[in-house]
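quick one, 103 residues, struct below
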Amino acid sequence: MASPGIKRFHWRAFVSFALLFSFLAAAGSGIVMYFRLEGSLSRWTSWSFLGVDKKGWEGAHILFVALFLVFSVAHLVLNAKPLFSYVRKKAAPGRRAKAEFAV
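---
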């Protein structure tokens, strides 16, 4: 238990911010890679953006997508109880509509 002057670490908030950051970083690197020169042309022209070459952007994109996936799973695990509660609440009216569900 934490002492009165020390605040405890909030994992849900940390994972939410990390999820947002990794999404924005993966989206940004994806946009850069979409507009980069294709294949060998980028190597022949020594293409770079913000001082990072094609391979660097590809590596950064893979890293941020992997982090996004890890933090997505952590986010689902940490928020499983509220998520299932919400789904149960919203699914309750649908249980009465059996014919509509079957169709």
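The first helix runs from residue 11 to 35.
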